């Protein structure tokens, strides 16, 4: 079997390995074994999901796997991914599993695992799970020989618990002014929680893409496509718009002028706010190699903050933050990690805290986010019809080295997506014309190589 875990848990097209009911059953059994093998105390696991149709399939397989290993299962239904870590600690669970393919469309699904502290499980534990599942002899040894199984129950008030926790993060002295907010729920896991919460804190709320049918999650909407949100913000003359992705752990904003505000801008706002309120720890922000150089210069020159860049994947950012007790990090794609409140990216939490900041500032949202000038940055996705061969991978690296030698003023990044069959290309520099020219040449060189 090929590698199971990618950059963010497990993810692929439904009914392709490893996202088959049979393999998910094995994954649950293996994870259950690695937990129950530590001591004899009864273990419990929480299972949540987003709104995709295949969630019913994998919820059943996972439940059967965990219960067969003697674990109790708590089913909470559709909830944003960041609600799961909060519930794990609240309900004293030993593990949580989120059934989701995040920003991907409905034909994909996946699994995100969290440990008893509400943190994404380590690479080490992922490797242990993979080794057992890929070795038939090892897998046969872990099967529960006891007649005693666990039980499964459904928790009805999970959404209320999560919502109340989010409201508790607001400063007690804050008085939120009336703000007109457009929410794009991507027909995903935020469709119930987010509109109620923003209404409860006093906003005038207009909601789009909040009628999931199992197949329309992330379909031309949400954090991956803000065109509809932009139109709605302008039409409704709203103060601000927020777009979540399918499982609610990402956020992209739109200001009153209809301009998209990405994760870099959102993190910059939080950095400015934390510096002003003296909340920033160790004067450090953590993001990934994708973040814009203009953002990095703003942190360094204006806020006197250091930026640490990690490889793409919010787990890499979170790991660095946890290791050194940093409180602010995230990704350009919209993962915003506010470490003092949550151990993972939370789109609703970030939107809520931005609303609080916005409410206390007497400016338009376009002014609020206008903190630095972005350097020209071109991103392009090259679709892969098959896995990259070692030869092609090596040739792409050679092409990249040549471009770096010939364009020393530019920054290049070529990487294979950990969630889709896509090769992602990034070119960045101060001169827009040079960036465009170099990116076109690089894309053509790579596509010509792959078409041979």
Description of the structure:
With 452 residues, the protein is of the alpha/beta class. The chain has 15 helices and 18 strands. It has helices at residues 21-36, 55-68, 83-90, 123-134, 136-142, 158-168, 193-200, 227-236, 263-276, 293-301, 314-324, 347-360, 365-369, 390-406, 432-451; strands at 10-13, 44-49, 72-78, 95-99, 108-114, 152-154, 180-184, 204-208, 240-244, 251-255, 260-261, 284-288, 306-310, 328-330, 336-338, 377-383, 411-416, 422-428. The strands form five sheets. It has a six-stranded mixed β-sheet, with helices on both faces. α1 packs parallel to α2 (55-68), α1 crosses α4 and α4 packs across α5 (136-142). The longest helix has 20 residues, at 432-451. The radius of gyration is 22 Å and the shape is globular.
Beta-strand content estimate: 15-25%
Strand sequence of the main sheet, in spatial order?
Answer: 1-5-4-2-3-6
- How many DSSP H or I helices? 15
Shape, per Cα inertia axes: globular
Number of strands: 18
The portion of residues assigned to helices is 25-40%
Distance between the termini: 28 Å
Strand count, sense and closure of the main sheet?
A: 6 strands, mixed
Determine Rg (CA atoms, Å): 22 Å
Average predicted confidence as pLDDT: 93
Low-confidence stretches: none
**Structural class of the secondary elements?**
alpha/beta
């Amino acid at each position: 079997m090929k590698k199971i875990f990618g950059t963010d848990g497990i993810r692929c097209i439904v009914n392709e390995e490893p996202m088959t009911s049979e393999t998910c059953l094995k994954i649950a059994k293996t994870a259950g074994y690695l937990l129950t093998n530590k001591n004899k105390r009864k273990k419990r696991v929480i299972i949540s999901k987003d709104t995709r149709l295949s969630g019913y399939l994998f919820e059943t397989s996972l439940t059967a796997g965990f219960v067969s290993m003697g674990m109790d299962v708590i089913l909470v239904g559709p909830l944003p991914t960041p609600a799961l870590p909060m519930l794990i600690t609240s309900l004293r669970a030993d593990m949580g599993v989120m059934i989701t393919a995040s920003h991907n469309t409905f034909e994909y699904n996946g699994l995100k695992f969290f440990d008893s502290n509400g943190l994404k499980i380590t690479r080490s534990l992922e490797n242990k799970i993979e080794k057992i599942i890929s070795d038939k002899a090892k897998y046969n040894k872990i099967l529960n020989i006891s007649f005693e199984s666990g039980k499964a129950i459904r928790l009805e008030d999970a959404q209320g618990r999560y919502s109340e926790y989010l409201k508790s993060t607001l400063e007690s002295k804050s008085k939120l002014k009336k703000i007109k907010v457009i929410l794009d729920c991507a027909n995903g896991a935020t469709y119930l929680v987010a509109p109620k919460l923003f209404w409860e804190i006093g906003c005038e709320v207009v909601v789009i893409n909040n009628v999931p049918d199992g197949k329309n999650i992330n379909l031309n909407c949400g954090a991956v496509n803000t065109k509809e949100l932009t139109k709605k913000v302008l039409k409704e003359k709203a103060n601000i718009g927020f777009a979540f992705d399918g499982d609610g752990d990402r956020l992209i904003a739109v200001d009153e002028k209809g301009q998209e505000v990405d994760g870099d801008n959102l993190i910059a706002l939080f950095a400015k706010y934390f510096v002003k309120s003296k909340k920033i720890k160790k004067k450090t922000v953590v993001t990934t190699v994708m973040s814009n150089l203009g953002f990095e210069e703003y942190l360094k020159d204006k806020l006197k903050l250091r930026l640490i860049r990690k490889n793409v994947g919010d787990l890499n950012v979170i790991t660095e933050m946890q290791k050194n007790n940093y409180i602010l990090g995230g990704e350009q794609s919209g993962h915003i990690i506010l470490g003092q409140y949550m151990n993972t990216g939370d789109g609703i939490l970030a939107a809520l805290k931005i609303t609080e900041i916005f409410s206390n500032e007497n400016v338009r949202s376009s002014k609020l986010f206008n903190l630095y000038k972005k350097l020209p940055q071109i991103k392009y996705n090259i679709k892969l019809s098959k896995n990259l061969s070692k030869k092609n991978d090596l040739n792409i690296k050679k092409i990249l080295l040549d471009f770096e030698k010939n364009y020393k003023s530019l920054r290049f990044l070529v990487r294979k997506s950990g969630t889709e069959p896509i090769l992602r290309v990034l070119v960045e520099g101060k001169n827009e014309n040079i960036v465009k020219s170099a990116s076109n040449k690089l894309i053509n060189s790579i596509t010509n190589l792959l078409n041979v």
